[in-house]
Amino acid sequence: MKKMLLLFLLVSSCKKEISYYPSKKFFKENNPKEIVIDDLNYEEIIDSISNELFKKNRLFIVIEGDKDIYKISPFTHTGSFIKERNGLEICKDSIAILDKKYPKSEIQKYLKLHYENTGKIESLSTSPKDAFVKLVYERNKKAVELKKTILNLIRNFEKVSIKDKENIDLGIMLSFPIEIQREISPPPIPLETEN
Fold it and tell me: How confident is the model at residue 179 (pLDDT cuts 50, 70, 90)?
């Protein structure tokens, strides 16, 4: 009898809790399909998600932590209007706000500022409902690194104390770096007109 009880306790303690991002309500309303990203690079992941968004479908990825399972339905920019200030940009080694970069080690501080801003600071979100996190990586980045970044982001979001956090969804946008044109094209040749 004691062995059965011990076995039951052991099995029940090993069960992982499932967390949903942006929210469990989102998953119920949109019924997203799972996409396995292990063998994909960042560009292929974004292309897959974008293609489904154009079809009005949503996808989600699964990331397993030590004690939890996370189901995340990220989005991509599909041409609609998005206020840039509502996205807290996280790059490979820093947090970018306008033209300034801050260390990723300060993520909790900037998540709190971003989600509690309500339009006070011009470069941060207009409201917690509109706020999201924008992950920016190179096209060839492997899925393993993306999963590590998302897991780190979620763990920090769970730890940080944000006012009214139970009513805030953690939206995650996947994006590429903006490519800056290095060469300036020559001015157009003036048209010659006959007088």
Answer: low
